[in-house]
Amino acid sequence: MHLHHFGLTVSPWRNGAGRKADVVGGPGWLVTFAWVDKDAEFSDFAGQDRTITLIEGEGFTLDFQGQPPLVLDTPLQPRWFDGGWRARCRLHGSPSMVLNAISDRAQWQHSVEIRRPRPDDTGFAVLLEEAGPGYRRLDTVSLPAPAVTVPCVVIRFDRKA
C-alpha cells in the first residue's frame, strides 16, 4: 500500500471544530492527519489511546481537566495522551498539522517512533522527506517497504491477547 498525502480526503473532526484526513484504519485503530487552525476542543475518544506528533506549525498546548497540560511545540516528538481526557487546544501562533495514531486500549497497543524503517518492521511509515520516484513527503506506505530508507514516522499496532 502506498497512499499519496495530496490525495487524502479532508473532512471535519468528530466535533466539527477542525479538519482531518484519515490515512488508514481498521476495527479499533486509526492513523489520521489533523489541522489545528484555531483554539478548539479536541474530539472525545474515550477508551482509546492517542499519540499525537507535531508535523508542521508552531504547535499548541492541550489543557486537560484534572491532568497536567501537554505542550506540543517540538516537531516530530510523539506524545501520548488518553483520548477520553477532555482537551482544549491553545495554539502557540500559526495553525499546525499533526499526525495521530489512535487505538482502542482494550484491543490494541500502538507505538510511534521517528526513525528509518527496518526490514522486519510491520505497520506503517509516514515519510518525512522524499524517498525516490513516486514517494513524496507525508506519503504513507505499508511496512515492510524495502525501497523506503528515509526518516519516517513509524507506526505499529499490536493486538492485545
Sum up the structure in keywords.
single chain, about 160 residues, mainly beta, five-stranded antiparallel beta sheet
Please characterize this protein's 3D structure.
Helix content is 0%, strand content 53%. The chain is globular. It is mostly beta strands and 161 residues long. The chain has no helices and 15 strands. The mean pLDDT is 94.
Quick recap:
With 161 residues, the chain is mainly β.
Rg estimate, integer Å: 15 Å
Helix content: under 10%
| Approximate strand percentage | over 45%
Number of helical stretches of at least 4 residues = 0
Q: What spatial order of strands do you see in the largest sheet?
A: 2-3-4-11-6-9
Coarse shape? globular
Pairing-aware structural class of the strands and helices?
Answer: mainly beta
SSE string = EEEEEEEEEEEEEEE
Distance between the termini: 27 Å
Round the mean pLDDT to the nearest integer and report it: 94
Total beta strands = 15
| Largest β-sheet summary | 6 strands, antiparallel
Low-confidence region ranges? none
Give the topology.
Elements lengths: L1 E2 L7 E2 L6 E8 L2 E8 L3 E2 L6 E9 L3 E5 L2 E6 L6 E4 L4 E5 L4 E9 L3 E8 L7 E5 L12 E4 L8 E8 L2
Antiparallel strand pairs: 1-14, 2-3, 3-4, 4-11, 5-10, 6-9, 6-11, 7-8, 7-10, 12-15, 13-14, 13-15
